[in-house]
Amino acid sequence: MRNTSLIILVAAILLGLFAVAGVRGVMLSRDGGAAAKMAMTTVVVARKPLEFGNELSAESLQEREWPADAVPDGSFTRIDEVVGAERRVALRSIAVGEPVLKEKVSGFGGRAALSQVIAEGYRAVAVRISDVSGAGGFILPGDKVDVLLTLSTTNDRLDTVTNILLENTRVLAIDQEADESTGGAIVAKAATIEVLPEDAQKIALATTIGTLSLSLRNTTGEEVDDAKPNKTIRLKDLGPAMTEEQKVVVRAKADPYATMNVIRGVEPARASVPREGSSRQSSLGASTGAMRRDAAAATSSVHNTMKLTAPAGE
Fold this sequence. Notes:
By secondary structure, the chain is an alpha+beta fold. 26% of the residues lie in helices and 23% in strands.
């Protein structure tokens, strides 16, 4: 009885081992077949971190195996395609193991110039900012911003409005810093942004008639579903509605005319003339000049009459 049980136990162990070996063989054969079917190639990646302006060398790069059907666009397959007799530098930050792409490096003999970072068909325009208009210094190269324009169509501060001039604009540089890996806040005096030629003209005009400021956007570029459409912000949007007394003061306008005394002969009279700077001043200039000449002639006549009627001896 004992021998029978022992034989059954040994047989079960042997069958289990054969089953495990069989399953493992099947799995290895499947993996080997899949690997054999997957075509591989090489891609040049960074061996160490590369920052804006770093020179590319054979020591900073390496060739790594890469699935042929997943090769990134603009990548290199050999190091000698990247490194040559002439100098080549990185135009953007490249992390360790990240593929080196043509858009992130300069041409042979190139340098780390901002002109090489500008996308085709775009222009670089500088906008004057401060610690306030530049989002407290937290706008950095590579961020996306909206450009706001604040201006008054008249000389009255109550007519000041703010509009969004440009949306989702890429920042190329802050002051003289163009490295996108820059961390921390930078309190700068100017921000260089990437815009279309027509938008560059808008900014040039806007700087002469109003004040520009930047609004930092979310890095993902996703909009909130219930976000309100952009609109012109006026004084009334800053707080509660104005009272009737305040509305009367706002609507009150200065009289464009001023009054003056005119003496015709010995009879005084009052006349209205446009104030200086009034829109009616130029159109009524001729009549005002004639009125002043009449006043001068009348005054002269009065003086002559007084001389003729003066008592003898005076």
